[in-house]
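Hey,
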Amino acid sequence: MFWVIDLRGRRARLLGWLVGTAVLVGLLLRTPGDAVPAGGRLQPLRQAPTRQRLVALTFNVSWGVEVPRRVLAALEEGQTRATFFVSGPWAASHPEVVREMTARGHEIASLGHRYVDVTTLSRQELEEDLARAHRVLESLTGKAPRYFRPPDGRYNDLVMRVAREAGYTVVTWRTDSLDWKNPAPEQIARRVLARIAPGDIVLLNASDSARQTDRAIAPILSGLKERGYAAVTLSELLDAGAD
């Protein structure tokens, strides 16, 4: 009786091992077009490879006009240029703000057209989404956007491939300010400054839902200066990393 029970236990363990191995092999052999959770073998840019004390402040914009204008004013006061990831529909609805961003020396990048989980889209849907936003941004700025940030930072290998084929560098972030939670401006600044490192890409939001972001810019810039850092555009950061 005891030997039978032991044998059954061994068989159960062996079966479990075989099932687990089959699942692992299936994941490794997943075809490129298959949908996978956010993340994958191909990785986006989160930090520039530089030892210089430079960081890029990057702002997502997909809704509203009040906060974007306040953020622009705060950056102007701080004599700082940044990179704005904007959605196609928002840019089309607020062309004057996009042109103002460009006129002030800020960099315009793509947040895509639809603010959705792009890991759920097919290749054709991804290509169409990127192309629609691209046309709008290029028509407003006179330049083809070089960087793409998937909404909420969600990506998989298919997203990475399609974006790269379209000429984009996929960019997420290393430091998340969590300003969308609307904590006090000083709390946003403390969080950013506590995590800062050379080559850092910082995520901030300039949609109207992030009501405290503009007031956090001055203490962020002040704290960066005290630490010997300077804030530049994403392109300037990457150029420094190439030196």
